[in-house]
Every structure is written in C-alpha cells, then in structure tokens.
Amino acid sequence: MMRLYRFLLPLLLVATACSSLRVREPVVPAVVNLSNIYNPSGVRLHPAYTVYHDNPGMSLLIVKIFPVELLYSGGIEPDQLIGQVRITYYLNDLTDPDSPVHADSGAYTYNIRREDAQRRFITQIPMRTGAGKFYQLTVITRDQVRREENITYLYVDRRSEFSEQNYMIIDVNENIPFFQPYVVGNAPFMIRSAVDRNDTVHVSYYGQEIPLPRPSFSLAREDEYFRNPDSLWALSFNSDKIYRMNYKGIYHFQFDTAIETGLTLFNFGPSYPHIQYAEELIDPLAYLTTSVEYAEMKGAQNLKLALDDFWLDKAGNAERARELIRVYYNRVYYSNYYFTAAKPGWKTDRGMIYIIYGPPQRVTTTANQEKWIYYKNNFTTSVTFTFDIIPTAYSLNNYVLQRSENYDAYWREAVDTWRRGNIYLIN
Q: Is residue 381 part of a domain?
C-alpha cells in the first residue's frame, strides 16, 4: 500500500503546483445534443480520464488536461496570464433504481498559470463509491475563459475487486498512468493495485485476427473471439515489476482464474491509434471493397502500390485521391481514439458507422444506450443508429449496434458514394 502512495503523491503535487482548489458542490447539468464528444473540431478541449479504486469507499477520477488547449487571460500580477479549468462530475448508481439522483457529485476549479503550463496537467478527484456498485459517471471539463466544455461519459465498476479499475497502469517512461487501455508497441509498464494480490498473475493472450463487425443490416451471429486464447502464461507479480507486451494482440490479466473479470490491455501496433503502414491502411478498406478485391490487395506483392491503385482508381486523379485518403483515414484514427474496446476502434460497431457515415449530427445517451442521428434531405428525415451499452469482462467500452435490414439501402448508398470517388456525407 505504501508503494502505491509513493506513486500517487507526485501526481497530487503536479496538480497543486499549477492550480488552486476552489469549490466542491453538487451539480445537475442539462445536456441534449452530445454530438461534439465525437467531433474533434466541435470543441478545442480534449481531456483524458481514467478511474482507479483507491479503497473500499473511495475511487479516484484521474484527469489529464493539455494546457496548450486552454485560453489564457490576465491575472492579478502584471503580465501574468491565467487559464481556468472547471471539472464537474456526477455519479449515478445503476445498481439501485431507488437511489438518490446522484450517488455523488462535485465541481473543482483549477487556475493554471501560462508560464507554469507544461505539456500536460494531471489531477485527481476523489469520489464516494461503494463495493458491489456499478455507476455511470458524467464528467464535464470546462475552459472557463473560452467558455467551452467537453462532456464525457464513463462507467465506474465496483462489482468485483478484480475488475479493471482496481488496477492502475503506470507508463514506466513517463511515470504517469495510462489513460487508454492500449500500450504503444512493447513499451514498459507496471501494474499497481490498492489491494494486496497473490504473487502470481495469469495472462491469456489472444493474437489471432480480430473479426470485422457485421454490416449494419446483417442479422447473422457475431463471431466468438475470446473463447480460446492462443497462449496462457503465469507470471510473478509485484507492484514494482516491469511488464512488456512483445506481440500484437490482446492480453487479459487475472489474479483469480475462477473469475472472468480482470485487467485487459491491448497492443495494436507501434503507432496506434494512428495507422501508417501499407498493411494497416489496407485493413479498413474491408468496408469499401468486395471480398475478392480485399483478398487481392492483401495478397499483393507491393502493398503500397495496391493501396495507391485502389484510391486512384476510385478518385480518378491524384488530388482527389489525396482528399479521400485524408478524410477516410482521419475517421479511422478518431475511431481508434474514441471507440477502442476489446478490439481496435475501427473494428467496433461505432467505429464502422463513424468511418462510413462520419461524425453523427446528434448524439443522445442513457445509462443503457447511445443513439446517433444523421439528418437527410435538409433535416426533413433522419437515420438513427442505436447502440446498446454492454460492458464485458474485457471492456467497459463495449457498444453493440441494434442491426436492422432497414439499414441495407443506407449502407449501400454510402459505400457506392465512396467507391465513386466522393466523400460520403449523409446530408
């Protein structure tokens, strides 16, 4: 336990050195359209979050902010520039329908001096949580000077002492927590826990090709992926041990193999969430190609040439091809950034829809669902995709599309538009 707090103390010092805690108060935000959360140009503030269960009655919301994204204004001292960030959260208990509106809530304000602004600012916010509970967490991070805010929804899972949020993954090179479930290549990391664990951790490794999601109109059954791991390892464990994931794939860490839940980490390549190699760039074209075209591209001797030929053939000229490539692969990147679950973001249901149709024009969310709405014909009609939120032992970020044969025409229209050399915009 002392080892854990030797790490947490520097984090707290990072926060207090650049900020001052002002208030903590309940809040009830009123939000309707949340489309900006998946539109990178919709807001200029892009914080990152992770949740860690510090003790049986307390969880930490750890927040990373990039000060360069803030707007600064004059402070008390001459020539002093101050940025101000307000972080508001509210926690809803999903396991008890009769619980109060908010199981916990609070608002914190931080002042950041421009001259102290490093490339990142990290702080911790304590939240009251209970063992056996499952919460929906809403976090609103607001640039008070610019009057712009970012809204994010997370789950806080206390149903098991072995679930992923009971562990903090430490980036050895940076000495800060990981804010995403993936490790870039074989970068070194440590695993910290607030609870003493056995001296052995069991690792299930899945390295086989992760299947593509079914088309939005397909009612076929989803392929099973996590039934049989490719390898099983038993490793010694302590909080100072350095681990590496030397192979691309999915690693599921368990301290009790009788319980399916554990810590799942991903190695999706040395540049993820970016993709830069020809083979990686060909993979997302599975959404636009026939099975024969796709197999021929994957089997080509010169993958780069095959990739270039595909886009030039669709676009008709190099300038148009470059624009198609820019938009398509930007959507792939943001799918990886927003939607990574127990598979790369571009292979998730939300990633598939995002790549083909673009950012939704309207997003609404409940504890169990997220709806994306795209407007057509000057907003006179619309297409709605509904995603059920189904957390699994491998990811809390698992969203499953409610598929329908009614989507067939929309899907074919979108794919045909791309194949004719045009960026698909549903309106």
A: yes
pLDDT for 405: 92
Q: Cis omega before residue 97 (within 30°)?
A: no
Q: Read out DSSP for 346-409?
A: GGSHHHHHHHHH-S-SEEEE-SSEEEEEEEETTTTEEEEEEEEE---SS-S--EEE---GGGHH
Tell whether 8 and 152 lie within a shared domain.
Answer: yes
Within a domain: residue 247? no
Sign of CA dihedral 30, 33, 39, 43: negative
Q: Summarize pLDDT for 339-382 with one digit per residue, the tens.
A: 999 999 999 999 999 999 999 999 998 888 999 999 887 767 78
Residue 330 is assigned to a structural domain of this protein = yes
CATH (domain of 136): 2.60.40.10
Q: Which of 159, 181, 203 is the last residue of a domain?
A: 159
Structural tokens at position 382: 């619309």
Strand partners, 52: 60
Amino acid 379: pLDDT: 67
Range of the domain at 135: 2-159
Q: Name which of 115, 276, 243 is nearest 253 in CA terms.
A: 243
- 155 and 28 part of one domain: yes
| Helix pair 291-298, 303-315: axis angle to 10 deg | 140
Q: According to the model, what pLDDT value does residue 381 have?
A: 77
Q: What is the mean pLDDT of the chain?
A: 86
- Residue 78: pLDDT band (50, 70, 90) is low
Assess whether pLDDT exceeds 60 at residue 15: no
Same domain for 138 and 8, yes or no, is yes
- Tell me if 256 is assigned to some domain: no
Nearest CA to 266 among 345, 338, 325, 329?
A: 345
What is the reported pLDDT for 48? 94
Cα four-point dihedral sign 307, 312, 318, 321: negative
CB 89 within 8 A of CB 105: yes
CA 15 from centre of chain: 23
**Residue 6 and residue 154 in one domain:** yes
Higher pLDDT, 271 or 116: 271
Give the distance from CA 220 to its chain's centroid: 27
Question: Does residue 62 contact residue 74 with C-beta atoms inside 8 Å?
Answer: no
Q: Pick from 143, 159, 175: which residue ends a domain?
A: 159
Residue type, position 236, single letter:
S
The total of structural domains in the chain comes to: 2
- What is the C-alpha R_g of the chain? 23
